[in-house]
Amino acid sequence: MRRIGNGLLDCTLPRAEWTHEAHLAACLWLLTERPDILPERDLPAIIRRYNESVGGVNDDTQGYHETLTQLYIRGVRRFLTDSRADGLAERVNALLSSAVGAREWPLRFYSREVLFSVAARRGWIAPELTPI
Q1: C-alpha torsion angle, residues 30, 115, 106, 124 (rounded to 10)
Q2: Half-sphere exposure at residue 130, Cβ-oriented, CA atoms within 13 angstroms
Q3: What does the alpha-carbon distance between residue 8 and residue 22 come to, in Å, rounded to a whole number?
Q4: Directed axis angle between helix 66-82 and helix 20-33, to 10°?
Q5: Residues in contact with 41: Cβ distance below 8 Å, sequence separation at least 6, in sequence order
Q6: Per-position b or e across 71-104, b if 16+ CB within 10 A of its CB
Q7: How far apart are CA 42 and CA 18, in angstroms?
Q8: pTM of the full predicted structure?
Q9: pLDDT tens series, the chain, 132 aa
């Protein structure tokens, strides 16, 4: 988890390893072990920089997605508040097994149309279906 988080920060993580699970592990690591980084503020630039460093593009159809990022930060924060897991590996494993860790979790709050819109990719959109 630390290797993933540090690889994200220093843009050395291989692109193939930047999976859904790695996104969540990095977020949890940042929230628990990097108090110098405020994810809500800093993660957008970190992810954009990383994406570009591995040849990715941040545009209207690919790359960084603001609403998903901010939603998952909120979800991981809430998970950490409620979790009794101890230690980084145990916490990440518990997160990935939780509702928040599911790939479809955002669709509890958003329709596909709204979540995958250009507006949601470019800026924060409040949940339309149910509050977080």
Answers
A1: 40
A2: 6
A3: 9
A4: 60
A5: none
A6: bbbbbbbebbeeeebeebeebbebbeebebbeee
A7: 18
A8: 0.95
A9: 999 999 999 999 999 999 999 999 999 999 999 999 999 999 999 999 999 999 999 999 999 999 999 999 999 999 999 999 999 999 999 999 999 999 999 999 999 999 999 999 999 999 999 999
